Structures are given as structure tokens and as C-alpha cells.
UniProtKB/TrEMBL annotation:
The keyword Signal applies. Keywords: Signal. It comes from the Bacteria. This is YncE family protein. The lineage of its organism: Bacteria, Bacillati, Actinomycetota, Acidimicrobiia, Acidimicrobiales. InterPro entries: Host-pathogen_enzymatic-act (IPR051200), Quino_amine_DH_bsu (IPR011044), WD40/YVTN_repeat-like_dom_sf (IPR015943), YVTN_b-propeller_repeat (IPR011964). The keyword Signal applies. SUPFAM superfamilies: YVTN repeat-like/Quinoprotein amine dehydrogenase (SSF50969). Residues 1-17 form the signal peptide. It comes from uncultured Acidimicrobiales bacterium.
Amino acid sequence: MLLLAVLMPATTLIAGAAAPVAAAGAPPMPGGFTAVTPARTLDTRIGVGAAAAKVGPGRSIDLQVTGMGGVPSTGVAAVALNLTVTEPTAVGFLTVYPTGETRPLASSANFVASQTVANAVVARIGTGGKVTIYNSSGTSHLVADVAGWHASARDAGSAFTPVAPVRLLDSRTTQAVGPGGTVRVPVAVPRPATLTAVALNVTATEPSTGGFLTVHPSGTTLPLASNLNVVAGQTRANFVAVKLADGAVDIYNSKGTTHVVVDLLGYWSPGSNSRMTAVTPTRLMDTRTGLGRAGAVQGQGTALLQLPGAGPVPAGRAAAVVLNVTATAPTTGGHLTVYPSGDSPPPLASNLNFVAGETVPNLVIVPLGRDGAVKIYNSNGDTHIVVDVVGWFDLPAERLDIERPSTFHSDVAIDPTSTYAYVTNTAYGRVEVLRLVDGVFEEPIPVGSQPLGLDLTPDGSRLYVANRGSTYVSVVDVAARSELRRVPIPSERMSDRPYSIAVLANGKALLTTTFDGSGFGAYMYEIDLATDAVKLRTDFWIWSGKTTEYTSIRASGDRTAAVIVVGDNSPGALFRYDAPTDAFSPRRETWDFISYGATNADGSVTLVNDGGMLFDRSLQPLGTVGCGSGGVAVNRQGSVGYGFGAYYESATGIIGTIAVCDLVNFRVTRVIPIGPVAGLGRLQVSPDGRTLLGITDTGLVLVRL
């Protein structure tokens, strides 16, 4: 991205101390990304995009980016460029920022006299669809190639899924790329056919002569563009955003021989909802001045950078950040690796390489750790580090298509190993089987008519499915993926049908029924799991087992308790079932039309929807968290809750959200947008706390936590 200001061997240049000033107008909105075939939009050597002349010291040029090189004239929030400085006469830096704004304390590329160097840039669009490029010192020619653009609307373009760095290629283990040669790099990620573009860190090492690399969609004509400029014997890296073709990219080497190393940082696809918000470059760390950290980072040491709430990165909404990271004044050659905090050891990847005494920047997209931080690892010697943020991606929610989902009635259960999720499909009389690791549906399991509620036995070997269109509960052999037997449910009235079910640790399952109408015409039953015997629980409530048509049950993680929410009932009745004593609690009235409830591993914390009311083990109120109005979920520890909600955008209509709530301090810590919706259903968090799955009218939403 773009952010930095500074340095060089004996001479250190620092961007001015003026604080960045945001332009007036509406705040930037997250938008999707569209990659284009690299196209040259600026070359001051020949008069493309600006006059055919060098840019002087302290001077700027305004580059038109909208309507050029495959970038549309409207609907653009930011542009992805590869910026090259060539033939500079002095040490200096470039800063790219929105035209019309005050130049920020940041830099986008650093150079020394006579050096040709490139750096990737993501820049927010300014006045007239332009970006401004400022040159600090000396005179330099500038070259820019456009790689893609970020939309100003959420529903335009593709969304980003960040990953911890994954090495795709290291030609040092095979053979170098020769002059005029091309190496094809397949991109191995889940469902590659759905990908539109990838984010890569490309490194050239051990080049035999000066030249450049060009990365482009595999099998396409080599474009007039470059991504990385090298000199003999030096190692250079640069960030690349590039379209895919046939699941791969091609890397062309102009001269000599060089080894190429490629690391995957993430990918863009239509199925995710993580969009980027471009910001005016803002400095977050400068170890020379003590900003963010004081003192150089030692060899094999790390610098911790806390992101949410820092500068323009909002607390609780960012999944990944776009940074310009610069190493300056290193005492020896080495590399920096930027990765999510909490990952240990650092991944086998690098983001930028340097030699003693030089200043090297690179653009980095990196996921945040669970603590909202990233680490920067220094391989050798001591080096100062400067970091500017230029954008952030909101938390990714992946939309998974499922035929004719029923938002209000469909249910979801996740196995004890957090490997598979099971979702009832009422329209097709089956249970969908979703593999959580990659979001792929496997062969569905046929059950009864209109399946609604479902739950797993504690060991995950059996799945109990309540079939609303039938008079029985299906018992499914999970390993065989087939219906094992059917448990008939007596009908107390003509339209009485199975609705919600919870399997407990005492060898019983609780089942509620529903009917065609409203009022107290449904019932609470128990099923003996050993004998399939069904019994009306006349001790439930005050009407000898009767309840409303929308009474849902959710078991605790250890199956020792269950929370029972009586829907379509103005007092908002709430109950707790204790499995060891086989007893229902007294009624707790919430005085709201609640419909969803969830509890933690031991049933000590209960969260219900419509405001996020929280209760203890005895159903005594603890407070209100504001955790959504739809389906809710609670992690095993009872410390974090999740709740469906929505807000309205004039351009796209109703946007669904998932609120992440701190149940200890009673506050919403982040909000995950999930895109346009009309209806929101149930939520479930995996036992390992790493995956959240929800049901909407348009399909399933999968969130990696």
C-alpha cells in the first residue's frame, strides 16, 4: 500500500511532520476489488499520463486513474498501482495520496541516486478521479501500471480472503528462470475456479544481471508493464495483485537468470464479504522516533503492532490490514516477515529483503491475530521499521449457496470436532453436510418431510432430526450418512408436528412440536435415546406440557443443560432444563418477543435475542449486551456472544450483520457485515470457537473467527 517516509544509508529522509488531513465529504465505504490486466497509465520518460519530463524536488503530479487502463470512470474508491521510480538524481521518497487532500506523513517508495525501484501502492481516489504523486528530493522519472480497482459499493467487485503466507514457488529448489523465460505458478486454494485474483509477494533473488519481472494471468499476452525491478546479485520483493487465468499466473523474466520465490497472501472471490476500505496513509510505527515501538528490532526479534483503534483502523471491524512496511538502516542483510499475532513461529515466507544500510519498502496485506495485532519478524542484524496503514478489510463472511433455505425454521448443528456442520433443508427433505475447513458441501442426507430442528449426540455419532412435515424424528447414522430409524411422535392434535430438538447427556432428548396456528397448541416431549420411548413432559410449564408453536431448545456444550425459548409469547418466557436432575426451572419472563436462545459449555450463561439479554445459571438477569435481534450463539467459555442484526444502506437496502459481543464487559466489540439480506435465522459457533455459521434467506454465512 502506501505509507512511509524516509531514509537511506548515511542520509535519512523523513516525510514532513504535518498530520494527515482527511478530505471533506462522506466517510470511505468498503468495496470489492476488480483486477485488470496490467496497463501502463504513467511514464514520464515518454509523456504517458504526464509531461515527458522528470518530476522535480518537492514537486507533485496529479495522475488520472479513473477512466484509464481498465478502471471505470465512476464507482471507484481506490486504485491498485505498481509505482516505479527510475533515474533519480538524489536520495528520496515518493508519497501517493488522494488528490485534493493535504500530503500525509507517509511514503510509498524509497530510492537512492540512479536506482530503479518499484513498490506496489493502493491509493484512495481524490478529486477528479486522480491521485497525487509527490517526489521529495532530486529529479526522477516515474512509471505507474494499474493492477485493479476497489469499488465504492460493497456489492461491486470481488471480496478478499486473507491467509497466513503460503509459499507457492521457490525456484531455488528447481531451476532459475532464464532470460525471456516464463514460469507458471498454480495457485492452490479451496475452490480455485471461483477465484478472480490473488495477492502475492514476489521475490527475485540471485539475478545475474539487471532486469524486471512481470506477473500476469497465465496464458495471456505479456502486457507492457512490470512488477519488480532487480539489479545483479541483489534480492528484491514486491507485492502483486493479479488476475487468475486457469487457476494460475505467469511470471516473465526480462534478462539474465534469476530465482523467483512466490508467497500467497490472500485471494479475491465472489463468495466472500470482506471488502477493503481505503484510507489516507497514516503512520502507525516508526522505531526511530519511538512511535509504536522504541529502538531498532534485533535479529530474530519481532515488533508487535496493535491495529484495531489505531489511526483510521476501527476497533472491532477489521480482519486484515493493508500496510506499507519499510526497513531502514539495517546493520546487515536480511528480511522482514509480517504475520498475524499469535502464530508461532513466523511462517516460511518473507515480505521484504534488504542489505546493510539500505531502505526498502513493500506493500503487505496481513490478517490480524485474535488480539487484533500483527508481528513483524526481523531475520538478521538490527533494523528500524516504519509502518503506514493505507487500508483495512472488514471481517470476512463467506456466503454459501444452498437451495431454498428456510430462514426461520432451518437449524444448524456442528460436530464435536468442529469438522462438519449439518443444516436442515426444509424444502428438499434433507440435511445438508458442510465441510467447515473449506466450505464445501458433501452429499446430503435424506430424512423426513420438512426437517426443522436437529441435534447431535454427545459423541457426534447420531443426528436427531425433527421433521415438521412428518410425525416422526429421524435418527441418522452420521458415519454412514443415512437414516437409521424413525421415532414416531404422538400427535396431540391434528396438526401437531415435530419442531425443535436437543440431545442431553442423561440419555434423553427434549422435543417441542408446532402446529398450523398460534397459541398454546404445541407440546414438550422427551425421547429415551436407548429405547426410543416418547413421553409427554407434563411437568413443563403450567399447562401440562403445552407450549407455543415456536418453542426452540438449545443444549449446552456438555449436554448437561438446555435453554428453552418460548416464541410468539408476549411475556417472552424462558426456561432452563437441568439434565442431571431431569427438571425444568421456573419460568423467567423477559417481556419481549424473543425467539432464539443459546448457552455456553456448562449452561452457566444464557443469551437470548432481541437486544441480547444475558442470564446466569438460575436465569437471573445479568444485563443487556445489544447483541442483535436474530439468531444468537455463545462460545464454550461463555465469554463471547454472537447475534444477527441488520442496518439499512440507501444504495443496497438491508445489510445483514453479525455482532460480536463481550459478555463479560457487556459491549459489542465488532460488527461483521454479511451483505444484502431479507431474513435472518439461526447462528451456531463451532466447539473450537473458530467458525461461526448462520442461516439467512439467501443461504448460509460462514465466518472464520
